[in-house]
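look at this:
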Amino acid sequence: MNKYQRLVCIVALLDLLLMVLFPPFNNIPLARGALNSFDGFYPLLTQLGHKPIHQELLTLQLMFVAANALSAWLLLQQREAHEIPRFRYSRAIGLFTLVNLALICLFPPFEPYPSLLRQAATSGFDSFYFILGDRSQRPIFTPLLYLEVVLVVINALALWLLFNVVQRNEDATRRKIIELAESLDDEALQALGEEMRQKVLAHKARPTLGRGDDRRQAEQTHAGPERRQGDRRQEAE
């Protein structure tokens, strides 16, 4: 796991923690036979046991965050064990943001059918549907849509700031190494290079899970006589 993947995991865990601590709740209707409807997002400790959690909406939120984190993890995967990924993170984060916003706009949250009636006192959330589908005549539940857009933008800005800090630190470290190399003479520079090369080779030689050599292809040598020969077994008897 490289440093960029760790940052993605941290942001994803914070999102999951926020969604678990402030889950969506349903209201409890007073009329008999009425179904529960979406009420809002409340702190978990204050409403747990008083209102039922909207499990479908919470599951969709968690899956959305997990899918984004997994996609970013795969894109930031290293090809080699010690390779540092070089990429234009601003363009990558912008592309991720556009894809998420397009997905949110193509499948926005809609209100239920009773909201079409003028007698409906309040509006609510029904589900996510395709914007050009047969349910496009319903009004869009704008509070939840705004909340989704704000969350995506905040995550994009947070990742951009974190990646920018990491990139600046790497550039500063690289400049210090160049300045140090320019200040040393040839013998000291050669000795320093040899020492760094030995440390890199020693670090690569460490066994890591899933990156070692295939021991099945190595030549196996066994000490002692071959026990599968039948002649020696008969002589021993």
Summary: The mean pLDDT is 78. Residues 3-82+97-181 form one domain. The first helix runs from residue 3 to 21. Strands lie at 24-26, 38-41, 109-110, 127-128.
